[in-house]
Write a structure and sequence with these properties.
Blueprint lengths: L1 H7 L7 H23 L12 H17 L7 H7 L18 E4 L4 E3 H11 L17 E3 L3 H5 L3 H17 L6 H19 L7 H19 L7 H4 L5 H28 L1
Antiparallel strand pairs: 1-2, 1-3
Length: 265
């Protein structure tokens, strides 16, 4: 019987369960990376329930623009120089997003426009996204390379306000459904920062590496909660659950990194 079992293995000395687990892990990883990277930033429209607040925000922005001195560079002229290749449009000012920020639900706005929208409603609590009405618990910088390298007064003000917002509201309790809704945006930002030179600190990258390695070892281990050899395709449910928990935990610690980064500046 033992010799027969060895002959049925696809690779001698390696159980078929290990190969199935390795294939499942690789497939899930590729699918997750494709899903995360295909979910780009969203140029949303204004939700009907937000129209009244958006109208008052636009009026406030117009008053600020008219109140600027003639010798100063206006936001309209800055928009010409910091255009995001026409790909990102702010649904508040209806222009190209300048010093853009992205909400945890994946919608993009001008940094100054969103800060004005927040200030115009209330300073006491987190606001709801003007596009989808999801509660905004985290704001992520979505600057162009030129804006990252700049050192303007508006850039400094936007970063300070965004950091303030994240410090106040990123740690609020969240439901499991909200964690799932935030996954595409947070994982995409974490993925890009993970592989960028000046992105995440090495300790965070090390933690992510350990988590991925632990998940990989579990998936190729024959000691599953639901063994594939016994339950067949149903045996992959625990593997999918482990991958999902891994993704949620990565998003949680990335959220903590963003909030801590804001407190350090």
């Amino acid at each position: 019987m033992a010799s027969y079992a060895r002959r049925t293995n696809l690779i001698e000395g390696v159980g078929n369960e290990v190969l199935l687990g390795l294939g499942a892990f690789t497939g899930a990883l590729v699918a997750a990376l494709y899903f995360v990277n295909s979910r780009g930033t969203t140029a949303g429209t204004i939700h009907p329930d937000s129209e009244r607040h958006i109208a008052s925000t636009r009026e406030q922005l117009q008053n600020e623009s008219e109140g600027e001195q003639s010798g100063q560079q206006t936001r309209a002229s800055r928009r010409t120089h910091n255009r995001n290749d026409g790909q990102l449009t702010c649904p508040i000012c209806l222009g190209s997003a300048v010093l853009a920020v992205e909400t945890n639900c994946g919608h993009v706005f001008c940094g100054h426009c969103f800060v004005t929208y927040w200030q115009h409603q209330t300073w006491l609590g987190a606001v709801r996204c003007p596009s989808c009405r999801t509660q905004v618990s985290l704001l992520l910088l979505n600057f162009t390379a030129e804006e990252h390298a700049g050192n303007s007064e508006e850039r400094t003000e936007v970063i300070n306000k965004i950091n303030q917002y994240n410090r106040r509201f990123s740690g609020e309790p969240r439901t499991f459904q909200e964690y799932l809704q935030d996954l595409p945006t947070l994982l995409r930002h974490a993925f890009h920062e993970f592989f960028s030179v000046g992105g995440l600190m090495w300790m965070f990258r090390f933690r992510i590496g350990i988590l991925v390695l632990a998940a990989f070892l579990y998936l190729i281990s024959p000691l599953d909660i639901l063994p594939e050899a016994v339950f067949g395709i149903i045996g992959f449910l625990d593997d999918i659950f482990i991958i999902l928990l891994l993704a949620i935990y990565i998003s949680i610690i990335y959220r903590q990194v963003v909030a801590t980064r804001g407190g350090a500046e």
